[in-house]
Write a structure and sequence with these properties.
It is a single chain. This protein has 13 helices and 9 strands. It has 391 residues and is of the alpha/beta class. The protein has one domain: Rossmann fold, CATH 3.40.50.1820. A 9-stranded mixed beta sheet has the order 1-2-3-5-4-6-7-8-9, sandwiched between helices. This is Trehalose corynomycolyl transferase D. InterPro entries: AB_hydrolase_fold, Esterase-like, Mycobacterial_A85_antigen. Keywords: Signal, Transferase.
Length: 391
């Protein structure tokens, strides 16, 4: 218990320092910023930082009235898809296609019986629009707004410019973990993303009506919340995918750190994670636990990346613009996913499934930020396809 209390005190102290530093930045006090940044960088290099965070979450799960870290709504907005607007559809159906207003991609509107609303996806085509190509379902991070982060920050257009692949980017999935929720969240709305991604979108996008030449091979990948989901969905449905990748994700919905990261994804967008798979270790949580049973991903090429959460000079420079609290959060999140990634690798080896299909890529130095995600997209794609679709 002493270790847990120390961990909680340490995190609270750093968080308070970060808040003070942000105030100082706003008042142009460079001395205060530099001091706080230096303290954060030093903490990020502590070898026990990930364990301390895990101890803190375990304590909160067991002893707090919330049974989770009580994070407030950081980025969420009330869904426009409230229950009073839900509609019944007979079957998934493509109802509209337009050029995107911002990027050189198409935006498709698809009626979803599972979501009881029209779901939007952004579609980036290969240079060769005639020859059938694989489809890559590319999942966004926690905010997952109407414009995919892969287009806004992830350089997907540059990364796949010489790849014969159609990228499918679902949008408006913020905080949902791309899963089927037990109950509709009054703030996030209805979430049945597993059903959409596995059962509804493929039938529509691969149909002749969609007009997208398809070679029969599906891949799935993502970053952070989307990376966790990509590996989880591939593991649950290995017959649907030829390969999967994750950049900075978590893979256990039961183990302390992974469970808390899934909670944080919903909380940070204003949702209630208890409505997702239940508060405790429920059958739904167990079903979605890749660490407990990783046989699905062991059957296909899978690439999993994590940095160690140690902040460097470039991360500090970014914090001068984005805020010292952003740096603190990016360190904490990458410490969490690094622990999650080691748990998955340990499980594969312990179960005799470390057969070479799953590649783990650990980097010394790096935090939870788009500058790292965009670097890993072409690496991840090349790893799971072995260059099979490069022009």
């Amino acid at each position: 218990m002493a270790g847990v209390v120390c961990a909680a005190a340490s995190v609270a102290s750093i968080s308070n320092g970060a808040a003070s530093a942000q105030t100082s930045v706003e008042t142009s006090s460079q001395v205060a910023f530099d001091g706080s940044a230096e303290a954060l960088v030093a903490w990020s290099k502590q070898p026990t930082a990930g364990d301390d965070l895990n101890d803190l979450y375990a304590f909160l799960h067991a002893a707090s009235p919330w049974h989770q870290f009580p994070l407030w709504n950081l980025w969420g907005e009330q869904t426009p898809y409230t229950p009073d607007k839900e509609r019944d559809f007979a079957a998934p159906r493509l109802v509209k296609r337009e050029k995107d207003e911002r990027f050189d991609v198409d935006r498709l509107w698809i009626e979803s019986p599972a979501m009881r609303r029209v779901v939007q996806v952004q579609v980036q085509y290969p240079r060769d629009r005639i020859t059938p190509a694989p489809m890559l379902y590319l999942l966004d991070g926690v905010s997952a707004p109407v414009q995919s982060g892969w287009l806004r920050k992830g350089d997907v257009q540059g990364a796949l410019a010489h790849e014969h692949v159609t990228a499918i980017m679902p949008v408006e999935a913020g905080g949902t973990n791309y899963t089927d929720w037990n109950e509709t969240d009054p703030y996030l709305g209805r979430s049945m993303w597993e059903t959409v991604l596995i059962d509804e979108l493929p039938g529509v996008l691969e149909s002749s009506e969609a007009g997208i030449p398809f070679n029969g091979q599906r891949y799935i990948g993502g970053l952070s919340m989307g990376g966790s989901a990509a590996v989880r969905l591939a593991n649950l449905h290995p017959d649907r995918f030829a390969g999967a990748f994750s950049v900075s994700g978590c893979y256990s919905s039961v183990n302390t750190t992974g469970r808390e990261l899934f909670n944080l994804a919903a909380r940070s967008m204003g949702g209630n994670p208890d409505l997702m798979w239940g508060r405790d270790i429920t059958p739904q949580r167990i079903r979605n636990d890749v660490v407990a049973n990783p046989a699905g991903i062991a059957s296909m090429p899978t690439y999993i990346y994590s940095a160690d959460g140690q902040a460097g000079p470039s991360d500090v420079e970014s914090a001068r613009t984005e805020g010292i609290d952003e740096l603190f959060g990016n360190i904490v999140l990458e410490k969490m996913v690094n622990r999650c990634t080691h748990e998955l690798e340990d499980s594969l080896n312990a179960k005799g499934l470390g057969n070479g299909n799953v590649t783990f890529d650990y980097h010394t130095g790096g935090v939870h930020a788009w500058s790292y995600y965009k670097q890993q997209l072409p690496v991840a794609w090349a790893n799971v396809t072995k260059g099979a679709y490069t022009y």
